[in-house]
Amino acid sequence: MVYAGMSAKTPAERLLDLLGPVNQFHDPVELGDFGMPSRAFMEDMLEPVASAGPGSRLGPLEKIHVFWFAGMSCDGCSVAVTGATAPSVEGLVLGAHPGLPRVILHHPVLNMEAGPSYMRPHELAVQGKLDAPYAIVLEGSISDETIAMQTGGYWSGQGEEPWGPNGEMRTVSTDEWIARLSQGAAASIAIGTCATWGGIPAARGNPTGAMSLMDFLGQDYRSAFGVPVVNIPGCAPIGDNFTETVAAVLYFLQGFGPLPEFDELGRPAWLFGETVHRHCVRGAYYEEGTYAAEFGDKECLVEIGCWGPVVNCNITSRGAINHVGGCMNAGGACIGCTMPGFPDKFTPFYKRPPGSMASTGMARMMGSVVRPLRRYSNAHLNREVRWDLQNDTPTGWARERSEPSGLSNFGHRFYDRMRRSGDTGRRRGGEWGKRDEWSDERDSSTERMLPGGVGHHNQ
Ligand code: SF4
Ligand code: SF4
Is the pLDDT of residue 305 over 60? Predict the structure, then answer.
């Protein structure tokens, strides 16, 4: 769709039109002594300990470069990914997974190179001279640098490059790197809600013109391998959601399988197909119509602001890190941080979503009937059949424990009869309810043990 005043070009194309082509880069012999140790690359340091090499690789790709960029970002996505375990970043960079190419990571925080040494592989990628395919990853939203350029500034940048006839140095914006590198990338991956949907920087007001990677590159964007933008949302996202998706895409690029299933918004369908609510540890409270009145209560959090029933997110089944934690497990309500409508469509936070009134009202009504029935059955199931027969519970943990009333017993017998009605092995009558020699013998010996029976036991 083209809005009034917009050209049919994508924001990325409009930016490149303004900037023009680049043909100046750092002189490799003048890279300087940045890096640890100086003039060394992290790839060279990791290679000797990596598991995969030309001799052990299974597919055509022995390695792939991954360029990580931060736009309008809090770095939370980077932090989340370092906690991933299945697979871990360490496993990916060491090529520890059979069939996966070794990942040569270029991350502005995690890498040891700095300055021009760090930027050198980026330059080679722009020139098409890199020694292996590359993918790009963006955390944080894309800001509209054409706004900042009007005053000679920039919103977010990474590295400096020579520019213009005098070779003057200028900061290269994240947008520019993305616009130039996305064309030749094997895959372009947006991580976190800012990169996938604009997120908090694109909330109402939005002075930087913040937008998502998909908005920036446009609907027709395809990577060099024919893949549209891959989106892994979350604020912060689950690290394993990212590394698992990267691994699945790498298997595809390696030729080991089809492209994994993505939904119509580019989310991994197997990770974002369910709502938070469907796997929530508090879901049964919702169903029984009992709700938390304040944070710290154990019940369902919908009345204090949980949007879980209408939000696509798998944190309730996967946990935050290594299957531990996650919003509701830790007592937090869902504020919809994975969703394209976040944050504007979920504010004010921690207020009851108006749409929940109908369902909680019905659940309350149903719960007022269901809860007492469940308590009644639960009391019955908390007794051995033997205790039913002897009308006594020999527990040392309660000095006085009331036994069920005659009316209760009658109801439980009726319930047992219903339960056993489909049991073809049932015996008519009898508390044990089974027709076999063992239970017959057991019944008669139990009867002998009952008060008034032949062998009365100590009570
Ligand atoms: S806390 Fe939220 S996700 Fe969990 S049961 Fe309640 S409404 Fe559903
Ligand atoms: S449960 Fe809600 S707030 Fe928590 S991570 Fe998922 S979408 Fe975000």
Answer: yes
Distance CA 141, CA 209 (A): 10
How far apart are alpha carbons 241 and 294 in whole angstroms?
Answer: 31
Is any ligand 2 atom within 6 A of the Cβ of residue 199?
no
Reported as a single tens digit per residue, the pLDDT across 4-48 is: 445 589 999 999 999 988 888 887 766 665 555 555 778 888 888
Task: Write the secondary structure of 245-288 as one string of H (helix), E (strand) and C (coil).
Answer: HHHHHHHHHCCCCCCCCECCCCCEHHHHCCECHHHCCCHHHHHC
Hey, what's the torsion of the CAs at 164, 167, 169, 173, to 10 degrees? Answer: 40
- Ligand 2 within 6 A of CB of 335: yes
CB of 289 closer than 8 Å to CB of 267: no
pLDDT tens digits for range 203-235: 999 999 999 999 999 999 999 999 999 999 999
Ordered by start, the domain boundaries in the chain are: 11-272, 274-382, 384-459
Fold type of domain 274-382: Cytochrome-c3 Hydrogenase; Chain A, domain 2 (4.10.480)
Averaged confidence pLDDT in the chain: 88
Whether the CB of 236 sits within 6 Å of ligand 2: no
Q: Does domain 11-272 have CATH number 3.40.50.700?
A: yes
Question: Do 231 and 267 touch, CB atoms closer than 8 A?
Answer: yes
In whole angstroms, what is the distance from residue 409 CA to residue 325 CA? 43
Q: Supply the residue whose CA is at minimum distance from atom 6 of ligand 2.
A: 313
304: phi then psi, degrees, rounded to nearest 5: -115, 25
Eight-state DSSP code of residue 405: P
Q: Is 366 helix (H, G, I), strand (E, B) or coil?
A: helix
Checking if the pLDDT of 154 tops 80, the result is yes
Smallest CA-to-CA distance from 237 within 105, 374, 74 is with 74
- Looking at 57-201, list the stretches that DSSP marks H as alpha helix, in order from N- to C-terminal side: 76-82, 89-93, 115-127, 145-149, 174-181, 193-197
Distance 214 CA to ligand 2 centre (A): 21
Nearest to 175 by CA among 200, 207, 138: 138
Instruction: Kindly write down the DSSP assignment for every residue of 406-447, as one continuous string.
Output: HHHHHHHHHHHHHHHTT-TTB-SS-SS-B-SHHHHHHHHHHH
Residue 52's pLDDT is what?
65
**Of 450, 259, 241, the residue nearest 326 (C-alpha):** 241
User: Which pair of tokens denotes residue 80?
Assistant: 């989340």
